Amino acid sequence: MASPSFQAPKGTRDILAPQSTRQRALIDLFADTVERASYGEVSTPIFEDIGVFLRLGESTDVVTKEMYDFEDKDGRHIALRPELTASVVRAYVQHRPALPWKVWYEGPQFRYEKPQAGRFRQFTQVGIEALGTSDPELDVEVIWLANQFYERLGLRQVSLLLNSLGDPTCRPAYLAALEAYFRDHVGDLSEQSVLTLDLNPLRVLDSKRPEDQAIIDGAPLMVDHLTPELAEHFGQVRAGLDQLGVSYHLSPRLVRGLDYYTLTTFEFAADALDSAQNAVGGGGRYDGLAESLGGPPTPGIGFALGVDRILLACDAEGVFDAPTIDPEVFVVDVSGAHVALELTADLRNHGIRTDRAWDNRSMKAQMKVSDRSNAAFAVIIGEDELAADSVTVRDLRGDTGQQLIPRSDLVAYLQNQLG
Ligand code: AMP
């Protein structure tokens, strides 16, 4: 019987070098950006008790339709994480770190979505969360950091959409007005939106269905129903962004896909990508989430950025190339004395990226592999070199030809040549 041939599961991908190297470089740049602002890395499990995610809200697609959940061998109901804010807030409630608690993360998320360009069932996010203060300047810091990260990647076509969703003091009155408005127009709404209306009228605003758009355009706006205190908070966030030169578009119908958001809410769109999948990140305040996970009332704000989509945006703008991992030096050993073994170890110990040929092949065959490796220099050891305790260094890119270098001078010579 023929062996079965397997493929990566639907909606998932294998990421090979150089794309994997590029993804890691992106994560390193993110870490550098947020660690400058004193965010420390937090690493939580990839799976949690499903209850952690159910707190995200029953009208959230991610929870109702897209969760990868299963029973483990002891009958616990487990879910692969669809996002990280809930896990981070669960960790906060469990460990009660000193406030403000500022953390960053990176890692895979899992959503049972319909796969398409830029939409996967396993995808990677980077993000930050900051718990413990409602200071609007923290909102500004958080948004500025995302903006700064896109800028450092070299992206120029990322727009920031900004809204305030109010809080439990003013949202009920707004929701009542919104629901009354949608009920008046229920005959013109899509079937799905009529169902959503029963769960959460706010989420109807999130509908992308064309038949809903005219009704949504006429709906009452949260920003017109904010209490004076919350309007002041939103005003300070906007003033802070202005002060730092971060441009934004007010987007009064932006509600985002998760139910827990309050006050400041934002999304980043990559204008170089197709508009269906151009969201490259988003976030906001979630001042009630810690309490709903059994903790003390604790304000919080954060964002998550989609790494896969950001890299697509980088491709579209022609920025942030994969860093090279080509060897700097390629060792060709035809001495028959296993010199390559020690030589490669020595060069690597001195920080020089080094590869070598295998299988004791001929000089010609090893040089061919060396040329293909894109190395800058070949280090060649034959019988003559062995006898003279030297090596031949051949410049594979420039025009300095080749030279016999004493073995003891090799590291210094190469370090000097490689700069
Ligand atoms: P969300 O948690 O839904 O706000 O997602 C934050 C960011 O993660 C989005 O702006 C996307 O860039 C990215 N993202 C969300 N879902 C997916 C997915 N299924 N595939 C790829 N990226 C995603």
Structural account:
The structure is a single chain. The protein has 419 residues and is of the alpha+beta class. The chain folds into 2 domains: 19-170 and 226-317, Bira Bifunctional Protein, Domain 2 (BirA Bifunctional Protein, domain 2), CATH 3.30.930; 329-418, Anticodon-binding domain (Rossmann fold), CATH 3.40.50.800. Helices cover 37% and strands 21% of the residues. It is built from 16 helices and 16 strands. A hairpin with a 5-residue loop joins strand 3 (69-71) and strand 4 (77-80). The longest helix is centred in the middle third of the chain and has 18 residues, at 136-153. The N and C termini lie far apart (57 Å). The mean pLDDT is 94. Bound molecules: adenosine monophosphate.
Uncertain residue ranges: none
- The general outline is elongated
Classify the secondary structure makeup into a structural class: alpha+beta
The amount of helix comes to 25-40%
Report the end-to-end length measured between terminal Cα atoms: 57 Å
Tell me the fraction of residues in β-strands, as a range: 15-25%
Indicate how many domains the architecture comprises: 2
Determine Rg (CA atoms, Å). Answer: 28 Å
CATH top level of the largest domain is Alpha Beta
Strand order, sheet with most strands? 1-5-6-11-10-9-7-8
Bound molecules: adenosine monophosphate
- Count of discrete alpha- or pi-helical segments spanning 4 or more residues: 16
The CATH architecture term of the largest domain is 2-Layer Sandwich
Number of strands: 16
Q: Biggest sheet, in brief?
A: 8 strands, mixed
Overall mean confidence score, pLDDT: 94
